Amino acid sequence: MFLPMADKSVPFTREFIESLADRYPTPFHIYDEQAIREKAREFSDAFAWVPGGFRNYFAVKALPNPHVMRVLYEEGMGFDCSSLSELLLCERLGIPGDRIMFTSNDTPASEYRKAAELGAIINLDDITHIDYLDEHVGLPELICFRYNPGPLREGNAIIGNPEEAKYGFTREQLFEGYRTARDRGVRRFALHTMVASNELNADYFIETARMLFELAVELKRELDITLEFVNLGGGIGIPYRPDQDNVNLSYVSRGIRKLYKEMMEPAGLDAVRIVTENGRCVTGPYGRLVSRVIHRKDTYKHYLGLDANMANLMRPGMYGAYHHITVLGKEGAPATHTYDVVGSLCENNDKFAIDRKLPRVEVGDLLAIHDTGAHGHAMGFNYNGKLRSAELLLHPDGTVTQIRRAETVDDYFATLDLESVEPVEAVMAGSGRA
Ligand SMILES: *Cc1c(COP(=O)(O)O)cnc(C)c1O
Question: 343 with 335: CB under 8 angstroms?
Answer without folding.
Answer: no
